[in-house]
Amino acid sequence: MIHEILSSGQLSDLHERITNKILQQQRLTVEEGIELFNFDLGILGIIANFQNKKKNQDKVFFNKNFHIEPTNICIYDCKFCSYHRKVNQEGSWEYSMDDILKKAESYKNKGVTEVHIVGGVHPNRDLHYYGEMIQRIKEILPDIHVKAFTAVELDFMIKKAHMNLEEGLLKLKEYGLNSIPGGGAEIFEPEIRKQVCHEKSTAEQWLNIHKTAHKVGLPSNATMLYGHLENNRHRIEHLDKLRDLQDQTKGFNTFIPLKFKKANNSLSYIGEVNTLEDLKIFAISRIYLDNFDHIKAYWPMLGKDVSQISLSFGVDDIDGTIDDSTKIYSMAGAKDQKPTMTTNDLVELIKTAGKKPIERDTVYNTVKEY
Ligand code: V47
Ligand code: SF4
Predict the structure, then answer these.
(1) Beta bridge partners of 61
(2) How confident is the model over 181-221, as pLDDT tens digits?
(3) Which range marks the domain in which residue 71 is found?
(4) How far is the CA of 338 from the centre of ligand 1 (A)?
């Protein structure tokens, strides 16, 4: 298909040169990455599909997981965030250890392989509190993979426990932490970062936490929050920093573009980008991040339909079957207010897109083929 497009004379000389580079598996520069935004969307989809097929054939991955959001109390005030509250503020929550363990109990013998734990940066909770939480969850669900705490939460809880980064991450690993989710990356460009989340960990800190995690044997995910104040250069520079770190460590499992949702936050006035832009972001991420094996569409945020279409734009993963416990997107106005999909729903969604559903564990070992 790409060869036909190349020989049809449809592409400008510049686009033909970039497409040829991709075909020959040569790495794109930042400038070439930015130029991808000027490609026809259909052509981008074909190129991204081609790259994805090389890595994943027709496989589309999902996992069976559940979420715990221990608290939405947060010391920060990110402008895009609809979720955080201050202590005692209306709408705040803070689950007790017992509540959390009860939740873990309810997933016994349900076939889930992962628990994803993220929440606000609570002023009073340190690494040992969260370490004990992991330990006690694992007493209930001994085989569960614990993917927990964004770099921003880790930064705070490790400092609060008076440890350095490496000591803190090793200690959490000892408590039972298995990997780290990709949140908190937002957009690395310092000026935009200052405007949307000026207080929290810097880009350098985020990258250093993931680098150190990879060093101590904790794999992680990476994200980018798009569709707010950033431009195409900021987006590609963000991907470029992730690509550089992946070259050094090979510790990232997957990249997840996170679409800014506008409800109930200080950036609501910006609105949201349209579906065509979402698909562009997925395709360009697939093309630019040549050293990432997987690109994930987080369906509770995008909705089921767009997630399904994204499978033709370079995406090979649609996250897991989750219950209604993830509030970070529903509070920001995500389409599915009660985001649940059964395994059958997920399998059907993937099959009707012409792909092969694979249930995976967190690090992409096959659990079951459908
Ligand atoms: O860092 C907050 C984002 C992230 C909004 O690793 C928003 O598998 C859109 O870490 N609109 C946290 N996004 C979520 C996270 C995550 C999510 C899915 C999968 C994985 C993974 C990790 O949520 C934050 C921020 O970028 N976020 N508010 C909003 N209004
Ligand atoms: Fe806190 Fe995370 Fe919301 Fe920022 S995005 S205010 S760190 S909960």
Answers:
(1) 317, 358
(2) 999 999 999 999 999 999 899 999 999 999 999 999 999 99
(3) 60-363
(4) 17
